């Protein structure tokens, strides 16, 4: 087996719009399987099919979200309906999600799609969650998202890292885009990982990997570059947000993309802080970045429309 740490555990590796899902089947005496993250709302039908095939009649006890970005909790509502699963979310955002304070939740700030779900339980760093006959430690993973959690199973050395550690590079550090601290926290999270006996990582996006030291080095280099040049980080973040939007809509008139950009609260705040001099509005900054995506083949233009490319 390629990853002995993953024995009995099923990883659904999805594209970049949906996060991966990790399914931990129930051990004897447990009331159902536990799923870590539920992917994007637009893919939730497929998520349900994948799970039905894998569960083979076993119940789904709960979905635990590493953090509440729309690509990690978009399937929650559908899975609640399909399987009667509970939803467990990180303590830091539990109250916002319980009352669905949309204006403060990241999907609305970023102009993204997220079906509303119900929160049954909040979980916090330091807790142990029993699943699959294993003890999963919940660890704080601030940086990319201030409230994010990771799961670590010590006997197997298995880390489910969410977006705190990828095989290469580092996820956008969202707090920094609105003038809050995040780079230091992200570096702290990498240090936490470095001090754990990790043998295998299942990240939120991309394949599982075992060369943790190399990934930590790449992530650190990336963060240090951004720390030195936060404008570069912000521009990268804008490219990521626009590309994500295109993945959500598939294709639309360029004018619709610019109207979207004008209405996204996070883009306005990023523009106020980081836009180059002479860029008159969030929409015109978006237009520039769209040009970059087209130039790199990450989007395609046909007449007045822009199309996402895989
Ligand atoms: Zn995320």
UniProtKB/TrEMBL annotation:
It comes from the Bacteria. GO terms for biological process: antibiotic catabolic process; response to antibiotic. Its main location: periplasm. Gene3D superfamilies: Ribonuclease Z/Hydroxyacylglutathione hydrolase-like. Residues 18-205 form the Metallo-beta-lactamase domain. PROSITE patterns: BETA_LACTAMASE_B_1 (PS00743). Its cofactor is Zn(2+). Keywords: Antibiotic resistance, Hydrolase, Metal-binding, Periplasm, Signal, Zinc. InterPro entries: Beta-lactamase_class-B_CS (IPR001018), Metallo-B-lactamas (IPR001279), NDM-1-like (IPR050855), RibonucZ/Hydroxyglut_hydro (IPR036866). It is found in: Periplasm. It catalyses: a beta-lactam + H2O = a substituted beta-amino acid. Its EC number is 3.5.2.6. Transmembrane segments: none annotated. One of its GO terms (cellular component) is periplasmic space. SUPFAM superfamilies: Metallo-hydrolase/oxidoreductase. One of its GO terms (molecular function) is zinc ion binding. Belongs to the metallo-beta-lactamase superfamily. Class-B beta-lactamase family. This is beta-lactamase. The lineage of its organism: Bacteria, Pseudomonadati, Pseudomonadota, Betaproteobacteria, Burkholderiales.
């Amino acid at each position: 087996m390629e990853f002995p740490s993953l024995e009995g555990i099923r990883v659904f590796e999805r594209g970049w719009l949906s996060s991966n899902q990790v399914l931990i089947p129930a051990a004897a005496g447990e009331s159902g399987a536990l799923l870590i993250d539920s992917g994007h709302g637009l893919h939730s039908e497929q998520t349900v099919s994948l799970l039905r095939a894998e569960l083979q009649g076993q119940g789904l006890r709960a979905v635990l979200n590493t953090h509440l970005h729309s690509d990690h909790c978009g399937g929650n509502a559908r899975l609640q309906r399909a399987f009667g699963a509970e939803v467990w979310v990180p303590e830091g955002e539990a109250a916002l999600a319980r009352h669905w304070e949309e204006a403060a939740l990241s999907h609305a700030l970023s102009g993204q799609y997220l079906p509303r779900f119900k929160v049954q339980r909040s979980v916090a760093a330091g807790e142990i969650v029993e699943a699959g006959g294993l003890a999963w430690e919940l660890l704080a993973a601030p940086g990319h998202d201030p409230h994010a959690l990771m799961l670590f199973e010590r006997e197997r050395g298995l880390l489910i890292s969410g977006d705190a550690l990828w095989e290469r590079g580092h996820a956008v550090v969202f707090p920094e885009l609105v003038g809050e601290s995040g780079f230091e926290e992200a570096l702290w999270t990498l240090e936490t990982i470095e001090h754990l006996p990790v043998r295998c990582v299942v990240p939120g996006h991309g394949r599982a990997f075992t060369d943790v030291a190399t990934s930590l080095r790449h992530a650190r280099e990336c963060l240090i570059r951004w720390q030195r040049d936060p404008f570069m980080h912000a521009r990268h973040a804008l490219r990521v947000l626009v590309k994500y939007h295109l993945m959500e809509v598939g294709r639309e008139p360029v004018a619709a993309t610019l109207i979207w950009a004008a209405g996204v609260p996070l883009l306005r705040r990023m523009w106020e802080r980081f836009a180059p001099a002479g860029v008159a509005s969030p929409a015109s900054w978006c237009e520039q970045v769209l040009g970059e995506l087209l130039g790199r083949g990450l989007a395609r233009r046909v007449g007045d429309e822009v199309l996402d490319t895989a």
